Amino acid sequence: MFITGALLAGGKSTRMGSDKALLLLEGMPLIRHVAATMQQCFDDVMIISDRVQDYGFLGLPIFPDIIQDCGPLGGIHSALVRSKAEAVFVSSCDTPFISPELVRYICAHGSDVDVKIPLWKGMLHPLCGLYSRRLITEIELKLDAGELMVQGLVRDCPSITVPIEASLPFYRDNLLTNVNLPGEYRALTEDDGFA
After folding, report:
1. Which of 26, 68, 110, 179 has the largest CB neighbor count within 10 A?
2. 10 or 80, greater pLDDT
3. Which of 3, 20, 25 is nearest to 97 (CA)?
4. How far is C-alpha 48 from the geometric centre of its chain's CA atoms?
């Protein structure tokens, strides 16, 4: 299957107080860590964001949301519409520890369904998953109806969850850790996050 990688960087980072995608971890912005992983997995990688000037340093195509102010579901929609691939692997810009092994494992897991998302530490992580282009019309209907929760899409379409367990050879305890609050960022920088 031909897959496009898409980084979602459209959030306003209101809880962080500054653009979390540009926060430094081990000398690199969080978004660069995610972009590097995606580029190891896919030939075609894009960024979904209205802030073209902020992420130009990555050298990747940047596309704004087609339907504005619809949160991550709007970002997923934009990635699917812009992609020429059968599916898009979506990752938020604030999960710097995702690995190529994790991404490939999710993509390869199970059957041909519309969504594959990881289940990690008892929680679903819909902003690190594979979405089929078959979903475009369904997402547009949800956006038109004001139904903006990604979890609602996952619930209503053919989907599978991919358990990410400690027995997997690539498992790390921080694989899907994301950064939303200043305290979470401080914890990352004080800890050796990539160990």
Report:
1. 179
2. 80
3. 25
4. 10
